[in-house]
Request: fold
Amino acid sequence: MNKLFLSLILTGATVGLSGTAVAQRNVSLGLKAGASLSNFVGKDAKAYKDIVGFQAGGFANIGFTKLFAFQPEIIYSRKGGELETPGLTTRLDYVDMPLAFHANAGGLFFEAGPQVGFLVSAKDKIGNATVDVKDAYNTVDFGYLFGLGYQRKTGPGIGLRYNGGFTNVLESAKVGNITFQNQRRNSVFQLYATFSFQGR
Reply:
């Protein structure tokens, strides 16, 4: 599964870089930031509730034609979920690298693509106590995204995106000859604003 996903990531990056050579005059750079509503999904995630997080970063929008574009991004994103009993909040911070393919209609766009995230922080909070639990979590999170929004080559824009995980957030645990895997994956809705600068 991970090898297949890495192949998709590399294919997407290759397509994007090839397109850059063709579309050098249709590239814009931009910044984005916004709020997120995150939770966990999976068999072992039913007791978790949503928490509010954030995301911020930058992107390059590479236009192939008037209809299609490729947008690689680097985003710092906070995810996680909350257990009301015993009042435990899990916050996971990632550096995400989405590879979004856009279908454009004027300034309106629809997007979809793969994403890989690298865990930089994992903390559990109960009351005033915070515990570092990064060692229990997978350091790489493979996922996907889809969404829509309004974005021009220059100026402000807005978007709504969903990204979900293929990878369980917790590492597997082995007891004797038996391996246990907690079935819990990231699930995040992101509302964000952008500002684009004409590149080349």
